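Here is an idea for our session: we take a single protein and study its fold together. To get us started, please write out a protein record for me. Once you have written the record down, we can walk along the chain together.
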Amino acid sequence: MFSENQWIKIKAPATVANMVCGFDILGFAVNSPYDEMEMRWMTRAENEPSITIINIDNYNLPTDPEKNVAGAALLAFLEEYEEKQNSSSSSKIKFEVKINKLIKPGSGVGSSAASAAGAVVGANYLVGNIFSKDDLVRFAMNGEKLASGVKHADNIAPCIFGGVTLVRSIFPLEIIALPSPTLHVTIVHPQIEVRTSDARSILRQQVLLKDAIKQWGNIAGLVAGLMKSDYDLIGRSLEDVIIEPVRSILIPGFDALKLACKQAGALGGGISGSGPSIFMLSKTEEIAKAVEKEMHELYAGMNLPHHTYVTTINQKGVEIVADFI
């Protein structure tokens, strides 16, 4: 176990979920943006709170652990940790977490997942890495349930594992890390908010069999393209006939933006998570920057404030970047 009262610093990456056709099952981590967190553990006396959350950003997120995604994840972690240790009340532990959110909440690039995943990876490090990555995903999914009403892992899994991940099953949990070729990622975040719960509420609960068959083909093609480093196959498979047609109405200029980016050389892309961010994949940094230019021009023409990122896939996931007194 790491020394009591000794702080660690955590870097938790943003993530892109769904990867167009892989709703709730595919996702990848990116190198920018990311959240910063600091964390320590201490012995908890009787009647003391088990988790203290301190915000060091300006988003005013709840500090009550039961209403904060990092807190919800840590509560699940502590419950299983104490069962595993068969701890007496006198030897129970508590965590103090400082969170600096550099991933804007509601941006569609895994802000809630970064907080939840960063918290449980940090906690696990502090207690001696006794839990597996699959266990950490399970704990962190409690944060996603608080944020969206659903326990989904398509952001959590790549945030913890790094790279591209496939969630084959939630119950029981099975995460598969997928190899991928070098891919450059361009993300635009129009400064509007799309709540994950709202974006889920508008989805159809039933789909046509012909649409399902097409979607299955695209998912299989995308996974095969990633594993074979076949850029053309990746590009052809980045098509969603079920979710995107419904959710895209929430994002201004979506269809025009997607067309302009593909004309600039992008392999393809779509809505990041539930939006409003949009991502595009490219073979080279040069193309990724040309895609960024198209994004700027379209949203500037609409007088819509926006942020962009040109980045790459993060292969490490959440990292402990420093420990200090």
